[in-house]
């Protein structure tokens, strides 16, 4: 499934809904609101994702099981970065080697 978790697939998923699945709680829907390209080189890619969650979402960082209709299931480390009237925002940062 990680082959579907490409930079391109994530960039194309802006403004789509992901489900965050945690044990003992109903799935929480979050929207990928921003794809932030980073400084990539031929052997390494960098980018970040910003997700908007409901206002009542827990403001905690950690590994979360994510589900998306097109991409599938994967784990992602999310960090809360801000809150406004529309929701709580989490960021996921990617810095990975390219084969």
Keywords summarizing the entry:
99 residues, mainly beta, 6-stranded antiparallel β-barrel, Elongation Factor Tu (Ef-tu), domain 3
Task: Provide a descriptive summary of the structure in words.
With 99 residues, this protein is mainly β. The chain has a single domain, classed as Elongation Factor Tu (Ef-tu), domain 3. The protein is 5% helix and 57% strand. The chain has 1 helix and 6 strands, in the order αββββββ. Strands 1-2-3-6-5-4 form a 6-stranded antiparallel β-barrel. A hairpin with a 6-residue loop joins strand 2 (28-37) and strand 3 (44-53). The radius of gyration is 13 Å and the shape is globular. The two termini are 17 Å apart. The mean pLDDT is 91.
**What is the rounded Rg?**
13 Å
CATH hierarchy: architecture: Beta Barrel
Figure out the total of helices.
1
Q: Report the portion of residues in β strands.
A: over 45%
List SSEs in N-to-C order.
HEEEEEE
Unreliable stretches covering 5 or more consecutive residues = none
Under CATH, the topology is which?
Elongation Factor Tu (Ef-tu), domain 3
Helix/sheet category:
mainly beta
First-residue to last-residue Cα separation: 17 Å
Compute the number of structural domains. Answer: 1
What oligomeric state best describes the polypeptide chains here? single chain
Top CATH class: Mainly Beta
- DSSP strand tally: 6
> Helix coverage percent of residues?
under 10%
Q: Numbering strands along the chain, what is their spatial order in the largest sheet?
A: 1-2-3-6-5-4
Q: Kindly state the mean pLDDT as a whole number?
A: 91
What general outline do the C-alpha atoms trace? globular
Q: Can you summarize the main beta sheet?
A: 6 strands, antiparallel, barrel
